[in-house]
Specification:
The complex is a heterotrimer of chains A (about 250), B (about 290) and C (about 350).
Chain A (H helix, E strand, L loop, with lengths): L3 E10 L2 E11 L4 E5 L6 H8 L7 E6 L2 E2 L5 H7 L1 E3 L12 H8 L8 H6 L2 H20 L15 H14 L4 E5 L7 H18 L2 E5 L3 H7 L2 E6 L2 E7 H6 L1 H8 L2
Parallel strand pairs in A: 3-8, 3-9, 6-7, 7-8
Antiparallel strand pairs in A: 1-2, 1-4, 4-5, 9-10
Chain B lengths: L1 H30 L6 H18 L4 H24 L8 H23 L4 E2 L9 E3 L4 E3 L1 H23 L1 H11 L1 H6 L4 H26 L2 E2 L5 H14 L4 H21 L5 H15 L14
Antiparallel strand pairs in B: 1-4, 2-3
Helix pairs in contact in B: 1-5, 1-8, 1-9, 1-10, 2-3, 2-4, 2-8, 2-9, 3-8, 5-6, 6-8, 9-10, 9-11, 10-11
Chain C lengths: L1 H33 L5 H27 L6 H19 L6 H27 L4 H21 L1 E5 L2 E5 L13 E5 L4 E2 L7 H19 L2 H11 L1 H6 L4 H24 L4 E2 L3 H4 L1 H14 L4 H17 L7 H17 L1 H10 L4 H6 L2
Antiparallel strand pairs in C: 1-2, 1-3, 4-5
Helix pairs in contact in C: 1-6, 2-6, 2-9, 2-11, 2-12, 3-4, 3-5, 3-9, 4-9, 6-9, 7-9, 11-12, 13-14
């Protein structure tokens, strides 16, 4: 059974049909790309999948559970984590603390334990520190652990967002233009990182990207979105050679 | 009979709230900030008119004109010095706290300049008003003038915003600052104009308020200012007709509340209205819903 | 690992400096008082100073850590002051051991303020920014107004309530009026002291600093920094907003208890429990540095003592506060000012990061 099954998903904003009968089916541990011209509704799909917007039609099924209409927080707990097109870090907090916020739900202790510094607090905090540092190592950020997030260089900020999302131990990771603003060198590193994360954490990845080198380099299958509707779906090489897709990208 | 006269008094007070609320709602619509100091501009306007009439002995018309000019300049200066530098600040709390600071600055400057004593404001309207139902009911001149002035201001302002070039620029800026700039609209000038108009209206409101309720102190503007903000939220912040309707309703609620419940609780009642509106319909009666961009 | 330990010790060290500073200040003042080296005027200010320090620290939890502006903080202080004074006056003959009575009054004041915080927080925290500020202001004013119209008396039949006046309570001869509308509560036992105030400050600091450096504190700060991102990693935004707001209200309640048990007559006015007081506390928080707990303590102490010591300045006090507020905000938040600071004072940056 597919990990993510989306059926007939749709939403309108003030008469404009932003996404219409969107369907997608992603297998476990697949690396899947969502592409399309600017304004095609890609980020809106992400916002629908993560409960930022409530769909007015359709169903979202994650690993056999219907998560349609749930709130963002609950959807994350059900197993979807994401990054944002315009980076959203906890700017005034340290890099380490950003990841530790991601670890929040998986490593609980009570408020009283926290305020009184009881043994439970010390033990869980130590676990969190270790796990956070391990994640930072994966993304080559361990030397920045105590840096304030807003002081990180741009490329590292993008990576930190992925690390924070991975801290929630998701089944499905949504990456919204992870390579935006990166130079070819950084993009190459990022591709390796995404592959490595998938192997190590057995996570399924759905990503939005404009960088065709990245898309053709790591995505196994693609869905092309145009004017809020699915234009074409299938194996990466087939989709990229589809004449319809070429027209959509290059214009009439 | 008393109910009708309460109602008319309520409409009159509501007209003052509506005029003040216009200043809030226009500024909020364009600069997306709550100008906490707006209420205190009212007080400054009232003091200018008061000094003009009581000390300089000029006619009410000139005194009101002086108040309008002073407040307009004050509004422009406040925007330029205190708010504009914070327009792109990373925290929205920054400009709000600054506005609170400006409010305190105006109050305490007035305290030093004019003293803490309550001044008796001479009404700018000398007409005694009309008597109805064989003397059973008297509607004062101030009451009638206030309502009429409010209606005129509303009509002029709606026409201005809909029809004139600067008015259209104001609408464009409130929709999308960036796009307006690209279209060649001078955003800074438009925001300054909005503050100027709002502050000029505040002067008018101050004179009318003090003509009806003649005691003037440095704190006179604070409470009506906050209540007018409630009115603006009630009607739907950013909406000019909303400010009008919200102001009138709030004035009537307050006067009826004062008359039929405990007068000490009238303020609490006004605030309760705000809380209920925000919980039931946060966009107010005529406001638009804004979707957060993710 | 070494990185983390460094950070741990840095936080602990910073907290220890704050505690040490407060303790040292207390010991110095206390010994000066016992040696009679300090005027009655200043001695009388010690409890109010403690009240304002607790208020500033608790408001900083909402403004600096949660990132929301509350303009009704004095309202929670009002709730704590009146409920506890009410209790103490009722019980002044029943419980004669003053420390025990004060301790119970403290619990009651804290609990009632916390309940109010929770009840107000549930609807209010759905709102954002300006709206939240104005609604908290509204609630603060409503609380103050309600206290001013309420009359409560007690006789052998139990409690009597009225909103008309003390006469309409219809008390028997053995009865007494406890809360008398605008006249407030008179005859509260004066159980507060500088020492009690000092202990309460230490407890407040302990709770706030430890909360900030815990899992819950990180969740609260993540909401401040980016609500949408916080939700996306599974943070329950409503829960943590309420937590910060309620803890803050409870602390303001404690400050209220301290305040009311320092006065023989307790009345609710704009200056002690109204909007003006809330703004005053906000000035302390802004001046001490938003989010900087130690700064709040220092600002509250200095701004309470200074104007009283320099009596000549008292007319200009509020004016100066207003200017300080504006200048501080412009200097700290205006993008141009930040740019200018970074260009000319970048060497200070390291130092700034170490503070929390």
């Amino acid at each position: 059974m597919a990990l993510l099954e989306v059926k007939n998903l749709g939403i309108s904003f003030g008469g404009l049909r932003a996404v219409n009968s969107f369907e997608i089916s992603i297998e476990k541990e697949e690396l899947y790309g969502l592409i399309g011209p600017n304004g095609a509704g890609k980020t809106t799909v992400f916002n629908l999948l993560t409960g930022v917007y409530q769909p007015d039609a359709g169903k979202i099924i994650l690993d056999g559970t219907d998560i349609t209409g749930r709130k963002t927080t609950e959807i994350n707990r059900a197993g979807i984590a994401r990054t944002f097109q315009n980076i959203r870090l906890f700017k005034q907090m340290s890099v380490l603390d950003n990841v530790k916020v991601g670890l929040h739900n998986k490593h609980p202790y009570s408020t009283i334990e926290g305020i009184l510094r009881l043994p439970g607090y010390r033990k869980v905090e130590r676990e969190m520190d270790e796990q956070a540092m391990e994640l930072l190592k994966v993304f080559d950020l361990e030397k920045y652990a105590q840096t304030t997030a807003s002081n990180l260089p741009y490329g590292q900020q993008r990576r930190l967002e992925i690390a924070r999302a991975m801290a929630t131990e998701p089944k499905l990771l949504l990456l919204d233009e992870p390579a935006a603003g990166m130079n070819p060198n950084e993009t190459g590193e990022l591709m390796d990182m995404i592959r490595f994360v998938r192997e190590k954490f057995h996570v399924t990845v759905l990503l939005i990207e404009h960088d065709m080198k990245l898309v053709s380099g790591i995505c196994e299958r693609l869905t092309v979105l145009n004017f809020g509707e699915v234009l074409c779906q299938g194996a990466t090489s087939d989709v990229l050679n589809d004449p319809q897709v070429i027209t959509a990208y290059l214009g009439e | 009979m008393s109910f009708i006269s309460y109602l008319i008094n309520g409409l009159s007070l509501g007209s003052v709230y509506a005029i003040i609320a216009l200043g809030y709602t226009m500024v909020y619509g364009i600069a997306k900030m709550l100008n906490f100091a707006h209420g205190d501009v009212i007080m400054i306007g009232a003091y200018v008119a008061f000094i003009g009439m009581s000390q300089a002995g000029v006619s009410p018309v000139i005194a009101v004109a002086a108040a309008i000019i002073v407040c307009t300049l004050l509004g422009i200066v406040i925007e330029r010095v205190a708010y504009k530098p914070l327009r792109n600040a990373s925290s929205s709390l920054a400009v709000l706290i600054t506005a609170i600071g400006v409010s305190y600055l105006l109050q305490n400057t007035a305290l030093l300049v004019f003293g803490a004593n309550t001044q008796t404001f001479p009404s700018v309207v000398s007409w005694g008003g009309i008597t109805l139902a064989d003397g059973a009911m008297n509607i004062s001149g101030v009451t009638i003038v206030t309502i009429v002035v409010c209606l005129v201001i509303m009509a002029v302002l709606i026409t201005f915003v809909q029809k004139s070039k600067p008015g259209q620029a104001m609408r464009a800026v409130s929709e999308d600052k960036g796009a307006a700039q690209l279209m060649g609209i001078n955003v800074n000038a438009t925001i300054a104009l909005t503050f100027a108009i709002g502050s000029a209206l505040a002067a008018v409101a101050g004179v009318l308020l003090c003509s009806a309720y003649p005691s003037l102190t440095p704190y006179t503007g604070a409470m009506p200012g906050i209540k007018a903000f409630v009115a603006a939220v009630f009607g739907g912040i950013g909406s000019i007709p909303g400010a009008f309707i919200g102001g009138l309703l709030l004035g009537v609620i307050e006067i009826l509340g004062r008359a039929y419940t405990m007068s000490q609780l009238a303020d609490a009642l006004v605030f309760a209205v705000l809380i209920i509106v925000l919980l039931v319909k946060p966009t107010g009666l005529l406001g638009k819903k804004i979707q957060e961009k993710v | 690992m070494s990185e983390m330990q460094k950070k741990m010790s840095r936080n602990t060290k910073s907290n220890l400096i704050t505690y040490g500073m407060v303790a040292a200040a207390f010991l110095i003042m206390q010994s000066l008082i016992s040696m009679d080296r300090i005027s009655y005027l200043v001695e009388g200010l010690m409890v109010p100073v403690c009240v304002y320090v607790i208020m500033a620290v608790s408001l900083n939890l909402v403004v600096g850590v949660l990132g929301e502006l509350s303009l009704g903080h004095a309202g929670f202080m009002c709730v704590g002051a009146f409920t506890s004074a009410f209790f103490s006056k009722c019980m002044s003959d029943v419980i004669t051991v003053a420390p025990l009575r004060f301790f119970l009054a403290l619990l009651i004041g804290i609990a009632s303020a916390a309940v109010f915080g929770l009840l107000i927080g549930i609807p209010v925290l759905r709102l954002k920014g300006d709206y939240l500020a104005i609604v908290t202001l509204a609630f603060g004013e409503i609380i103050k107004n309600l206290v001013n119209v309420l009359f409560i008396g007690k006789d052998s039949d139990g409690f009597h309530f009225s909103t008309e006046g003390a006469m309409s309570l219809n008390l028997k001869d053995d009865g007494m009026v406890i809360l008398s509308g605008p006249q407030g509560i008179t005859g509260t036992p004066r159980d507060s002291s500088f020492f009690v105030g000092f202990i309460l400050i230490m407890v407040a600091l302990f709770i706030v600093t430890n909360l900030i450096n815990s899992r819950d504190g990180r969740a609260i700060m993540s909401i401040r920094d980016n609500r949408i991102a916080a939700e996306s990693v599974g943070i329950n935004v409503t829960k943590y907003k309420l937590m910060a707001f309620t803890i803050s209200a409870a602390m303001a309640g404690a400050a209220g208890v301290l305040y009311s048990h320092n006065l023989s007559t307790l009345i609710a006015t704009t200056n002690n429990f109204g909007y003006n007081q809330s703004i005053m506390i906000l000035v302390f928080v802004v001046l001490g540095g938003i989010g900087n707990i130690r700064g709040s303590v220092i600002a509250a102490v200095v701004l309470t003592l200074l104007p009283e010591m320099l009596r000549g300045l008292s007319n200009y006090r509020m004016l100066i506060y207003a200017i300080v507020l504006i200048v501080m905000m412009l200097f700290n938040w205006a993008p141009k000012a930040i740019e200018w600071r970074e260009r000319h004072f970048s060497f200070l940056k390291k130092k700034k990061e170490a503070v929390r």
